[in-house]
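Posting this for the archive.
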Amino acid sequence: FAELHAAVAGLPVASSRVVPGLVLRRDFAAYCPAGGELRALLVTEPLRPALAAPGVEFVVDSEGQYRASLCWISRRTEALMSHLQSNNIKLLLSHVKQDEVVIHYAKLYGVSVVECLSSEEMALICEITGVSPCAPFGDNIHREITEAALATFCQPLLLGSQRCVHIGFTGVSAFQPHCLILCGPVAGVNEQHAAALQGAFTMLQQLFKTVDQ
């Protein structure tokens, strides 16, 4: 229930509504409008390439080496984003915050980015789509991408003064997620309404639970 409702204070209760898909309570790190069916990639690690393996010390002896390292990172990141574009990836859903160079090339290659998704949100998206997060690319940045989810739309949504991300997914089961937008004059009223609705849904779950005879 926590991932399937959003509370908005400062609006009348009558503004409450149900919308299809998921509402993520954060703004796009990069937004590139795209029509039609979108391929979305879930990631749990930074896409900026590392200069050395974990636990290995990388030593820079001069400013020239430092600049060369930055150029290498930039070229590798651009190559990865170009690869995503060639695989028709239009949306990147990230559990972690991505580096500025990733956001820069995402905008350049038409890939929208949503960062800092919670573990619960990632798990819900995986359940809806039947897709697991993409394994780290490492040195194989041109490997085939088979873990993409399908989204029917991805657009900004303004809830009060907060910019959110509104996404509709093509599910692999009969479960078609909808999000409840709860509006109220103050946060306390929204919390009361949310608690009451969650209790009602819990009661319905118990009521319609299959009873083993």
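The longest helix spans residues 63-86. The chain has a mean pLDDT of 84.
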